[in-house]
Amino acid sequence: MRLALYTGILLAGGYTCLTPALAADPTGDWRVADGVANIRVAQCNGSMWGAVSWEKQPGGRDENNPDASKKTRPTLGMATLIDMKKKPGADQWEGQVYNAKDGQLYSATITPVGTDQLEIKGCVMGFLCGGETWTRVGPPIPSSTANAMAKGAPKAAG
Prior knowledge:
Blueprint: H1 2-18, E1 28-31, E2 37-44, E3 47-55, E4 79-86, E5 93-99, E6 104-113, E7 117-124, E8 128-136
Antiparallel strand pairs: 1-2, 1-8, 2-3, 3-4, 4-5, 5-6, 6-7, 7-8
């Protein structure tokens, strides 16, 4: 009887080891590190895009944008993660991040850490890098090719 019990435990443990880990999912709503905004990340045409879905201070404007025509555009709905493509063989996406604090675009990667954190890393010239960790604030949104991002979000080149 004991042998059967131990054998059952070993077999169950072996099957557990053979099941693949669930892939990390960056889609959903994320609170930025300083808590001033939430970013909704969704898949669109094979890439991940993120747009401001909530702001602590409503009525924000893109006042630090170097393009004078964009300085008055609302930050709510504005694209922040742009055309993030999955890196083969890794739970990581590469693309661009828009930093509204300085109005600049940076090369960036996003990497889910567990189910509730998303690491954002942006670089200038490939070596001057910085980043922060965002925290999930709700359940992941359903994956859909019909997910609409912010009106006027930049179109991917190519």
